[in-house]
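Running this now, will post back.
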Amino acid sequence: MTSADVLIVGSGAAGLTAALNLADRFKVTVLAKGALNEGSTAWAQGGIAAVLEPGDTFDNHVEDTMVAGAGLNDRAIVEFVVEGAPAAIARLQQLGVPFAQEGPENGGALHLTREGGHSHRRIVHVDDATGWAVQVALQRAAEAHPNITLVPDQVAIDLATGRHEERYSGAGNVWGVYAVDRTTGRVNLYTARATILATGGAGRTYLFSTAPRGATGDGIAMAWRAGARVSNMEMMQFHPTCLYNLDVKNFLITEAVRGEGGRLINPQTGKRFMTYYDPERLELAPRDVVARAIDAEIKRYGLDYVHLDISHQPAEFVRHHFPNIHEKLLGLGIDMTTQPIPVVPAQHYTCGGIVIDRDGRTDLPGLYAAGECTESGLHGANRLASNSLLECFVFGEAAAKHIAAHWDALSAVPAIRPWDESRVTDSDEEVVIKQNWTEIRRFMWNYVGIVRTTKRLQRAQHRIKLLTGEIEDYYGHFRVTPDLIELRNLLQTADLIVRSALHRHESRGLHYTLDWPETLPEPVDTVLVP
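Update: finished.
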């Protein structure tokens, strides 16, 4: 057993922000599922939304967020996050994040770009690799702090709760996690008075996703099994523009390419097709609108992909704004300064998740959460571009502040039972895991994708019921492995998504169903209770 004051599961923007805000006073342990920089933060190409441009206002940013979220957002939470954005940017600058700046003639102000759904230029960025720069800065600061212990290669299995106490109290408290060490295969128990889940989203539930391999809904599934509510899991965001390439999968073409003038073209007709779907906002419409438009165009014409074309802009402009994407595509034989980019939609962001309040608290005493694994009320039915990293910083800090302010109210850790492997054996059929993993991702893409029907959702639900018995039996008889843990969480997350989608009898934001095409007058959250 390893004990700390505060345990954080996840080493991305939310987790490290929380750690840095706690470490001057508390001993903090941060668990990473793989390498410390393998989470979604490092993959984020776009930027961070903040009101910094003259003429822009908090009210504008709030309204843009509410419109994108189809009114399902919690306005008080949206205001809280938006108003915290400029200070979050300032702190990142203090940590050394090299945000792009204007030239000397503009006083070296931050360079702001615009993305879909935003009424103003308000996206601060580091060229087209903002997430990586943020990850490097946060990780460097965390590694330098004597009170922060960073532990890679720890795959969390389940939360340690009241039922794991040697004398069961039934209080519902969370005291840490059990995690398997990738390098040794042994299960470790990490305990703490407060635990923060910052485990990212559930993108890998789908066949096509821009998320890293580890985005298997672990935190959401663990919190649900421990007794926490989840909300709006049907709101799964599909990014409109993922590179279509059979060799290089999951490479995102950032929203900013459209923000800087990129046009969507039907390769068969040669026509710019957003004029038919959203003639006012065109390519700058919110992501759900653009993703459905591309999906419709692909299905209508039998295409494999559509084209995203920014070659009408000066070559130097393109290379300067998108150096990493330009270099990556050149290596694949595509020169984006002269050629269109083949793109398809792909799952991109999990807007639903663990229910939290303004302080990052879940339903369970001692358990907090922040970032993509949560449903805070910020995103509603669709995430506005570049609000995701912002949410990580604001709620990572909020959770840390609440823990510090209420430390004396957090109970001391009782005696927790160690992991029991006395009645299990090593698996002799690893092929079962690979087969079921592939099956889940494929039926989720086909039946629970961009456009849904009740019949498709019921088919997915039927498959989930069959697989649940098989996987739980497998889990009960064999020693846990990282792949088995992820498979179990994938299936649990898929179940929550489908149940939520069947519960919503309307089309709103990211949930679009042919059986309920209208939007109801009043927005209501889908809340599932364990």
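The two ends are 29 Å apart (CA to CA). More later if anyone needs it.
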